[in-house]
Amino acid sequence: MDKKEIKNTVKNAPLSLPLGITALGTAASLWLGNKRIHIMCGMLWLGLSAMHTWQHCNKVKKDAAKVVEKMGIMDVLHLPKNKLDLFVRSVEVSSYIPGRVRLYSKALIGNREKCNQVFSYLDGIEELDEVKVNEVTGSILILYTPQKLRHNAELVRVEEYIKAHVRR
């Protein structure tokens, strides 16, 4: 047997019966008063429990990945998926009209370097027509053509977030 076959055998071995036997052996050895058998059964029980935990963790990871993929859980939980999504969640959405968004961030007020970073990032998104960042007010004005923006699924997701979080 090579390493891969051994790993697969260990990974898929049913452990409920051996775990039960070692648990009973550990308990029985206490009743019989045999310290060596108790230690041996306890060690086996510990080893099998560790192996079972490893098997279970791997199964849970695979199952969770399937659920996330199948349900689109990132969308359900509304977690940010990219840098733009995360950025929009860090600012206040002041106004939204399709084609025009105004955002505010106190972190931009008086911070020319941060304003330049925000401008450079947003100006690099080709679906946006115009970006203005105001260092004095901490305001970001974004102008875009809605039909053009809707060809980019990530930007559609960001626009949906903005619509839902605009200050009323």
What labels describe this entry?
single chain, 168 residues, four-stranded antiparallel β-sheet
Strand content: 5-15%
- State the major sheet: 4 strands, antiparallel
The global form is: elongated
In which order are the strands of the major sheet placed? Answer: 1-2-4-3
- Distance separating the two termini: 68 Å
Helix tally? 8
Walk me through this protein's architecture:
This protein has 168 residues and is an alpha+beta fold. The protein is built from eight helices and four strands. It has a four-stranded antiparallel sheet with strand order 1-2-4-3.
Task: Please specify the SSE layout and strand pairing.
Layout (H helix, E strand, L loop, with lengths): L2 H10 L3 H17 L2 H37 L1 H5 L5 H7 L2 E6 L2 E5 L7 H12 L4 E7 L4 E6 L1 H4 L3 H13 L3
Antiparallel strand pairs: 1-2, 2-4, 3-4
Compact description:
Helix content is 62%, strand content 14%.
